[in-house]
Design goal:
The protein has one domain: Ribosomal Protein L22, Chain A, CATH 3.90.470.10. Helices cover 30% and strands 24% of the residues. It contains four helices and seven strands. The strands form three sheets. Strands 1-7-4 form a three-stranded antiparallel β-sheet. α1 packs across α3 and α2 runs antiparallel to α3. The chain starts with 13 loop residues before the first strand and ends with a helix. Keywords: Ribonucleoprotein, Ribosomal protein. Belongs to the universal ribosomal protein uL22 family. One of its GO terms (biological process) is cytoplasmic translation.
Length: 183
C-alpha cells in the first residue's frame, strides 16, 4: 500500500493522490505545488494551464537564487517579484490535479466545493548518471527527483456566527471579580 505523509482529518469528505520518483526538478515542483495550495480544484487547474501559456506565473518564495524578476508576480503581493514558468513541473501537477478530480468524483464529493488542503513535495533519491570531462575525468551528473502528494477536502457552507460572544477575562480580571464578590 502507498504511504502518505499524513492522513486527512475527515476521510469521508476528502480525496488524495500522490506520485513517487517524478523526474522533474524538486525546487521548481516545490514552488509550483505551493502555489496551488488553498485554491479550489477547478481554479487550480485553470491557474496551471495559464502558467503553461505564460498568462500567469509561479511566484518563487523559497528557492529564489538565480531566478529572474518578472512583472507578473505583482498579483501575488510577494516581496522580491521573483517567479518562473516551470513547464515540466506544471504538467506533472496538472496531471495530479486531474487525478484528484476523478478520485473526488469516485468518492461522491462535489468537485466545485473541493479545496486543496494539503500538498507536500519531498526530495527523492537522485538519479545518478555520469558525464565525461577533459583529460579522462568523469563527474557525476545527477537528477533531482521528487515525490508529490495532494489532499483535497470538500468544504461545507459558511458557519453562522454566534449571537453574542462570551466575554473573555484575563486571570487577573477574574481574580478581581471574585474578590469583589467576596466583600
Amino acid at each position: 500500500m502507498v504511504k502518505f505523509s499524513r492522513q486527512p482529518a475527515e476521510p469521508t469528505k476528502s480525496a488524495k493522490t500522490r506520485v513517487a520518483d517524478l523526474r522533474a526538478h524538486f525546487k521548481n515542483t516545490y514552488e509550483t505545488a505551493r502555489a496551488v495550495k488553498g485554491l479550489k480544484l477547478k481554479k487550480a487547474i485553470r491557474y496551471m494551464e495559464n502558467v503553461l501559456e505564460h498568462k500567469q506565473i509561479v511566484p518563487f518564495k523559497k528557492f529564489v537564487r538565480h531566478a529572474g524578476r518578472h512583472a507578473q508576480t505583482k498579483e501575488f503581493k510577494t516581496s522580491g517579484s521573483i517567479g518562473r514558468w516551470p513547464e515540466k513541473s506544471v504538467k506533472a501537477v496538472i496531471e495530479l490535479l486531474k487525478n484528484l478530480v476523478s478520485n473526488s468524483e469516485a468518492k461522491g464529493l462535489d468537485v466545485e466545493k473541493c479545496v486543496i488542503t494539503h500538498c507536500v513535495v519531498q526530495r527523492a533519491v537522485a538519479s545518478r548518471r555520469r558525464t565525461y570531462r577533459a583529460h579522462g575525468r568523469i563527474s557525476p551528473y545527477q537528477g533531482h527527483n521528487c515525490h508529490i502528494e495532494f489532499h483535497v477536502t470538500e468544504k461545507s457552507g459558511p458557519v453562522k456566527k454566534a449571537d453574542k460572544p462570551a466575554l473573555k477575562m484575563t486571570k487577573k480580571q477574574a481574580a478581581r471579580q471574585r474578590l469583589a464578590i467576596g466583600k
